[in-house]
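Z., the sequence and structure:
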Amino acid sequence: MKKIILIAVMLIGSYTSFAQTSVFDKFEDMDDVTTVVVNKEAFNMLSSFKGNDPESQEYVKMVQNLKSLKVFTTESAKIATQMKNVVSSYLKTAKLTELMRVKDKDAHVKIYVRKGKDENHVSELLMFVSDLQNKADQQAVILSLTGDIDLNKISELTSTYIPKKGKQHKEQ
């Protein structure tokens, strides 16, 4: 009997550690929340579509190392406040570093990262966008990206789409 209980505990433990749950998943089932969740299996499938050009190969390498992408958005004032509170609580316990903060009349954007295997990698990127100042039209967005994210690759790939001063980038 003890062996069966031990095996059951081990199986449940390995299942729960395998499941990609997060503190933000509670928003997924709420009616006034739009949710996008992309899991490791989807990233693996995307990485199997190999293009011929080097840029496509770089995307494939980057996507292969991602574990999950979760985006939760709402226009409900009540849920936007809940999202703000959950993010604040998560930041108190998670080992995330603020990467940047942008504030303008329309929104507040905060981006946080968790260090990865070295200074060029992060294991989690968390972005929170809120408009809690505007009572008439409150919105909030939580974006969570996890995996082995190479900042150098992201920088290289995004630089191909950002026009240089005085030059236009080519359309795809």
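Confidence is low (pLDDT under 50) at residues 1-19, 161-172. Strands lie at 33-39, 66-74, 97-103, 108-115, 121-130, 140-150.

Let me know what you think.
H.
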